[in-house]
Specification:
By secondary structure, the chain is mostly beta strands. The protein has 3 domains: 36-70 and 80-151, Sandwich (Immunoglobulin-like); 166-272, Sandwich (Immunoglobulin-like); 287-393, Sandwich (Immunoglobulin-like). It is 5% helix and 40% strand. It has one helix at 3-20; strands at residues 43-45, 59-60, 62-63, 70-77, 80-85, 95-98, 104-105, 110-118, 126-128, 132-139, 144-151, 166-169, 183-187, 192-199, 202-207, 217-219, 226-228, 231-232, 238-240, 247-249, 253-260, 265-272, 287-289, 303-304, 306-307, 314-321, 324-329, 340-343, 349-351, 354-355, 360-363, 370-372, 376-383, 388-393. Strands 1, 2, 3, 4, 5, 6, 7, 8, 9, 10 and 11 form an 11-stranded mixed beta sheet that branches. Strand 21 and strand 22 (265-272) form a beta hairpin. Residues 1-24 have low confidence and may be disordered.
Length: 395
């Protein structure tokens, strides 16, 4: 039962019990509408808000002097989603939400629109479709909310970022999206950090603390700004929890990146092409995963292959494959941040004719997969010494 309905129901039950103990001639009085939401704190959370999705430190609203159950906030909202909560630290509590999921907040004002409050699903959220500086008002007495668009977003205030370390993370980096093993950037001075190493097509951003997503990140001002052999599309960056903007590596290669945390700039020098040395892949296990395989995309149910008794680099599997995609990995890594054995380009077909190309790559990205276009029974053989795959249809 949603909270506002529960409040009304409990009020009705209490009133009925009270009147039952009074003079029988008194008439039953029914209170209609929502009871006020009594709280001294109110917060908003979401990638549209200044503190992002951090439930431990959401953005607080301020109660007004005229009515402590009317809360206001003024500041910058990014494009993204948001909802409100009364307390910090728990996703299981009740949240204040729009009556319709995806209700837009933009330069068109909202005046005394009703909202709802409940825990769990459905997870309705407001959607900010126009970034800017807003004034928000939430009336917890009347269960209404209002918005006013004040102006476009202010330019970020650049203050030196004091940090002990800097890391890059993303599927463009050698460690993928593993936040516990993000790639450390070398500290050259108080504010200058440099990285020299491979970057492949994909996305990345940077952070000053490894091991947590609930921190501000160094990112481009606009999502999808490109890094190519010519350098960064835009030399400036922002330092924020949201929106989740990321750089996109357009050209694979070995790069030298320089982050200036004092002036909020980044530059890149292309060093050389990535040389793929195909050394034998050493592993005792190999697994196939994908919606074409019996276990689907469940890492726990990944299909284990059998190693040859005469060659430790040859792994074979026989079974049913259905239309879909697949790739292979050397361990059941539930984070999906490990390197995968993949086709050398996306969508290489497997069907009754075998496999369209026998070579493969071993990398974290891009997320290329084989595509099974004919369901049936197959024998799949990986040669981890010569980096090849062989497919034999058995039907």
């Amino acid at each position: 039962m949603k909270l506002k309905n529960m409040f009304s129901a409990l009020a009705g039950v209490a009133l009925t019990m009270t009147l039952a103990g009074c003079d029988g001639e008194k008439e039953l009085v029914i209170i209609e509408g929502n009871l006020p939401i009594k709280t001294t704190t109110l917060y908003m959370v979401g990638d549209a808000t200044p503190n992002g999705w951090s439930i431990d430190s959401p953005t607080p609203l301020t109660p007004t002097e005229a009515d402590p159950l009317v809360f206001t906030w003024e500041g910058s909202l990014n494009t993204g989603e948001m909802k409100l909560c009364l307390t910090t630290g728990s996703w299981d509590a009740g949240f204040i939400r729009p009556t319709a999921n995806g209700t837009e907040i933009n330069s068109t004002p909202i005046v005394n629109a009703p909202f709802q409050m409940h825990a769990g699903d459905p997870d309705e959220k407001w959607k900010v479709t126009e970034a800017g500086v807003y004034q928000l008002t939430f009336n917890l007495r009347e269960w209404t909310m209002s918005t006013a668009f004040l102006r476009g977003q202010d330019a970020p205030e650049i203050e030196p970022i004091v940090a002990d370390a800097l890391y890059i993370i993303g599927d463009a980096t050698v460690n993928g999206w593993n936040i516990d093993a993000s790639v450390e950037v070398e500290k050259k001075s108080d504010f200058i950090y440099e990285y020299t190493g491979p970057l492949t097509p994909g996305e990345f951003k940077a952070c000053t603390v490894s091991g947590s997503w609930d921190v501000p990140f160094i990112r481009p001002a606009s999502n999808g700004e490109k890094l190519s052999k010519d350098g960064f599309e835009n030399p400036g960056f922002v330092y924020s929890a949201s929106p989740d903007n990321k750089w996109v590596v357009a050209d694979a290669g070995v790069y030298h990146l320089t982050f200036d945390l004092e002036n909020w700039t980044v530059k890149a020098d292309f060093i050389e092409e990535i040389v793929n040395e195909k050394n034998p892949i050493e592993t005792a296990t190999l697994f196939m995963i994908g919606d074409a395989t019996p276990g689907g995309w469940s890492m726990d149910d990944a299909s284990e292959m059998t190693v040859s008794s005469s060659n430790r680099y040859i792994f074979t599997w026989e079974g049913e494959l259905v239309n879909g995609s697949m790739k292979a990995c050397t361990e059941r890594d539930g984070t999906f941040s490990c390197p995968f054995i993949r086709p050398s380009q996306a969508g290489v077909e497997i069907n009754s004719n075998g496999v369209a190309a026998s070579d493969f790559v071993y990398t974290t990205n891009p997320d290329d997969q084989w595509r099974i276009t004919e369901s049936g029974r197959y024998r799949i053989t990986f040669d981890l010494e010569n980096w090849t795959i062989a497919v034999t249809p058995l039907d």
